[in-house]
Every structure is written in C-alpha cells, then in structure tokens.
C-alpha cells in the first residue's frame, strides 16, 4: 500500500489547508503557543495508539454494533489541561498528518471557566469561548473509513489568544424522545464499560461528551410530568448521529444548520423526512430519539417501561454553583431528610446545580457528617454528605 503524503489538514475535511498562527489585528495581545502531547495515551483515551509515525487508530475495523454510534471505527485522545500565561477567548490548531482515503481527524478544545468547562469546540478555524479561560484541554478524534483506512496525526500545534466574545448562553431545556441504551459489556465513546443498570446518558455529538468518570457535561432528564428526574453524566455518543449538537444555535451547530434549535436531526428525519429520512451515515431513522438513557437511568431513575418523550436540561449551558456527586446513584428527595419521598436519582460523577442550602436531617456520608441539604430545583434536595466538592461560586442559604 502506498504511504499517504504528509499534509496540514483542515480537520474533519481531509483537504489541504495552512492555518495562520499569528494574531490578527483584532487580537493585539500576545498569544500562547504549545504542542499537544500525542504520545501520552492513557485511561482517558479510546481506541488510539502512538507510534513513531504518529497517533492513529488502534483498531481501524468498523464496530461490531454499527447501529449504536457510527458505521466506521473511531478513536479519541484527550490531552492534559494546559495552563495559559494569560486569559484567552480563542484557541486555534495547526495539524500535521498523513491522511488515509476516507479517514478523518479532528482537533477539538475546551476551556475552564469559573462555572466549569465549556463545550468542546472545533479548533479549526478557531474555537471562541463565551468568556475568558485560563486552562485549555485538547482532544484528537480519529475516524476511519469503511475500508479500514486511518489517519496518522504527527503534530498538533495550538495557539490561544483574545477575540471578540459573545454573550453567555443561559441554561437550556428541550423536550426530546428518549430510548434505552442497553448494550451491557460494550464500550461507550469515552471508554466506559457499560454495567448492568448503569447510570449515564448519550447525546448525538461529542461536544457534550464527558471524559470517563467525570460529569463535566451532565443532563437533568425528567419525565414530562416532572414526577421523576435523574441527573446523569454524558458518557456516550448517539443515538443515530454523532455530529448533531441540536441544543446549539445554527451558527455553531456542527451539522443540520437548517433545523431549528432544539430539534434533533433524527426527530426531523423520522417525523418530516428530513435528509430523506436518513441520518448522517445514510441509515433509515427508525425513531425520533434525541437522547439515549443507560438502563439504570431509564428504569430506576425515571422508572420508564418503554421509550418516551422527556424534558432534558443541558446543565453546562447554565450558570451558578455546581456540586459533584461523589457517591451514587444518590436519592433526590422532596425535602431535607430521608423521610421525604424520592423524586429521582443523581448519578455518581454528575455535576448538579445547587440553588441554595437548608438545614435538615443529619446524615453520615462518605465525605462528611452534616445536616446540610442542597436544593437542586423546586422540590429536589440531596444530602451534602454525598457531595465531594462544590465549584462555580458560593451557595447561599435558602
């Protein structure tokens, strides 16, 4: 087989493009520049390996269950966060790679703000954050071809500087159709092995994908009556599409920019024949799903018995203090004590919004013994004894 020629990639397109790394006139401040470490493949990474030739897919064969996420092999390297010398609002990438026919490579970045991580954004032509960040994390996503071709990424050069920023986005909630994941024993997109009655969710875009054993991107999924809710981390990609961040406005939505905000492409394909009734891989869409629920979230958190419409809050789009559920699934109750009825669950690692705190029943938990209970929403309380850390601001009394 002929070795593909080395080139600078416009990521995800596999076309030749040289990206300027010099600040523009609108960006007078000096820029931070650094190289991503592609050799540090560890537990955060999925189906990639590093050789002298560069970073590539460890297994380029299409998945055994193609209907779950993608019809081709995929892999992902998540780099360690990089601390900037000064705040920045834009990060750009220059990539040197050898592209196989039909294979793709994408570099995405996210930034740490006072309220947590931003979404992952494509670093070509540049990721712009809604407020200045001091730490940046990059990831490289590789996609093979149906014939098994892959791409060797040899270098990733990153530049952070200042750019005009948009107003912060408020928290968003949409009603979408939920399906059950199942697939016990399979790997999720972030490398988690699915367990029996597991607690996580899947969205059809990596922009909201949490690294393994984190809840950086957490959903609150509720039944349409509001009687049951679960707070669960996003650990997988699906259903149907893998580049459909439908909660974002069309100006930043990866694909399907013709659809209204909050409308999953699978829903549009199923209900109105969008894209000929097919997903991004050309498969006939058999249901309108915009979110997938792991079995524990589906059965125990929401107590669903069949696929159903649910109300989903994309919590990273909101603001205010967040508490990390260190041990779970944790009961969400209607009041500050174990004698109150449950309203649902908060999965381990979920980052839950804390409105305020009250004094209630004293609980001895894994992190402390305390009478503090955190109110997540009206009629939703969790014991502070199970919250490992609070970030994003101070929590006032109710």
Structure notes:
The chain has helices spanning 265-272, 295-301, and strands spanning 6-8, 32-35, 48-51, 54-57, 74-78, 82-99, 104-113, 116-117, 121-122, 127-143, 151-161, 172-180, 201-203, 218-223, 229-237, 289-293, 308-314, 322-325, 330-333, 342-346, 351-353, 356-364, 369-377, 380-383, 387-391. By secondary structure, the chain is mainly β. It has 3 domains: 6-161, Jelly Rolls; 172-304, no CATH class; 322-391, SH3 type barrels (Roll), CATH 2.30.30. Strands 1, 2, 5, 6, 7, 8, 9, 10 and 11 form a 9-stranded antiparallel sheet that branches. Strands 12-16-13-15-14-17 form a 6-stranded mixed β-barrel. A 3-stranded antiparallel sheet has the order 21-18-25, with no helix packed on it. It is globular. The N and C termini lie far apart (67 Å). Residues 1-28 and 165-170 have low confidence and may be disordered.
Compose a concise summary of this entry.
By secondary structure, this protein is mainly beta. The chain is built from two helices and 25 strands. The strands form five sheets. Strands 1, 2, 5, 6, 7, 8, 9, 10 and 11 form a nine-stranded antiparallel β-sheet that branches. Strands 12-16-13-15-14-17 form a six-stranded mixed barrel. Strands 21-18-25 form a three-stranded antiparallel β-sheet, with no helix packed on it.
CATH topology of the largest domain: Jelly Rolls
Overall pLDDT metric: 87
Order of helices and strands: EEEEEEEEEEEEEEEHEHEEEEEEEEE
- Number of continuous helical runs: 2
Envelope shape:
globular
Which range does the strand content fall in?
35-45%
Structural class: mainly beta
Measured between the Cα atoms of the first and last residue, the distance is: 67 Å
For the record, the count of structural domains works out to 3
Binned, the helix content reads: under 10%
Low-confidence stretches: 1-28, 165-170
- Please state the oligomeric state of the protein chains shown: single chain
Largest beta-sheet characterization = 9 strands, antiparallel
Query: In CATH's first tier, which class of the largest domain applies?
Result: Mainly Beta
Radius of gyration: 21 Å
Number of strands: 25
Q: What would CATH call the architecture of the largest domain? A: Sandwich
């Amino acid at each position: 087989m002929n070795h593909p020629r080395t080139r600078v990639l416009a990521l995800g397109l596999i076309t030749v493009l040289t990206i300027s790394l010099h600040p523009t006139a609108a960006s007078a401040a000096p820029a931070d520049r650094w190289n991503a470490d592609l050799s540090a493949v560890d537990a955060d990474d999925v189906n990639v390996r590093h050789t002298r030739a560069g970073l590539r897919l460890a297994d380029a064969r299409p998945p055994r269950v193609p209907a779950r996420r993608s019809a081709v092999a995929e892999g992902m390297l998540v780099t360690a966060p990089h601390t900037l010398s000064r705040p920045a609002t834009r990060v750009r990438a220059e990539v040197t790679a050898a592209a196989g026919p039909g294979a793709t490579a994408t570099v995405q970045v996210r930034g740490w703000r006072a309220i947590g991580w931003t979404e992952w954004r494509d670093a070509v032509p540049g990721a712009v954050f809604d407020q200045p960040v001091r730490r940046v994390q990059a990831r490289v996503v590789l996609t093979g071809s149906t014939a098994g071709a892959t791409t060797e990424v040899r270098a990733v050069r990153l530049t952070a500087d200042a750019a005009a920023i948009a107003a912060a986005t408020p928290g968003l909630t949409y009603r979408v159709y939920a399906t059950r994941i199942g697939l016990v024993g399979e790997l999720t997109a972030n490398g988690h092995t699915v367990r029996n009655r597991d607690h996580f969710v899947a969205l059809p875009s990596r922009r909201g994908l949490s690294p393994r054993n984190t809840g950086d991107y957490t959903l609150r999924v509720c039944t349409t009556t509001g009687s049951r809710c679960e707070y669960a981390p996003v650990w997988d990609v699906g259903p149907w599409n893998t580049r459909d961040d439908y909660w974002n406005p069309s100006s930043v939505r990866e694909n399907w920019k013709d659809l209204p905000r909050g409308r999953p492409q699978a829903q549009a394909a199923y209900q109105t024949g969008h894209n000929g009734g097919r997903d991004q891989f050309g498969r006939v869409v058999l249901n309108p799903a915009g979110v997938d629920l792991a079995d524990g979230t589906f059965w125990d958190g929401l107590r669903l018995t069949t696929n159903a419409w649910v109300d989903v809050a994309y919590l990273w789009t909101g603001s205010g203090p967040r508490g990390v559920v260190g041990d779970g699934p944790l009961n969400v109750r209607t009041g500050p004590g174990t004698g109150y009825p449950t309203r649902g669950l908060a999965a381990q690692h979920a980052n839950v919004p804390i409105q305020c705190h009250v004094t209630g029943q004293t609980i001895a938990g894994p992190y402390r013994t305390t009478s503090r209970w955190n109110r997540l929403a009206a009629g939703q309380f969790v014991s502070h004894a199970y919250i490992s850390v609070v970030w994003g601001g101070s929590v006032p009394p109710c």
